[in-house]
Design goal:
With 101 residues, the protein is α+β, with helices and mostly antiparallel strands. It is built from 3 helices and 4 strands. It has a 4-stranded antiparallel β-sheet with strand order 2-3-1-4.
Length: 101
């Protein structure tokens, strides 16, 4: 099982609105690509001392790396751009890929 993890640092002033947007718009769009089996959307409860915003993580499950490669080629760039256009620098994302052992 492959996990595509996106960790987001979100400005406190927009966090409530961003969560609604994620649940109602962005996550359904990502899942509609057909590349992922499921996802989990969480807020991190531990914070770094120098952290200015709130941290969230989305873990998407995939069967194979080829699904992630296809997502990154066909869908990822436009979805990332929509997020940037909507939120700008108020949302910073870090992405990682993991494999279940």
């Amino acid at each position: 099982m492959i996990f595509y993890n996106v960790t987001c640092n979100v400005g406190r002033s927009i966090a409530d609105e961003w969560i609604i947007w994620m649940k109602e718009e962005h996550l359904p769009e990502v899942m509609a690509t057909g590349m992922f089996i499921s996802h989990t959307f969480c807020q991190l409860l531990t914070e770094a001392a120098d952290n200015e915003g709130l941290n969230f993580t989305i873990q998407y499950k995939l069967n194979t790396m080829s699904h992630l490669d296809q997502y990154n080629l066909e869908f990822g760039p436009s979805l990332k751009q929509k997020t940037l256009d909507r939120w700008g620098e108020q949302v910073l994302a870090f992405r990682s890929v993991m494999e279940e052992v």
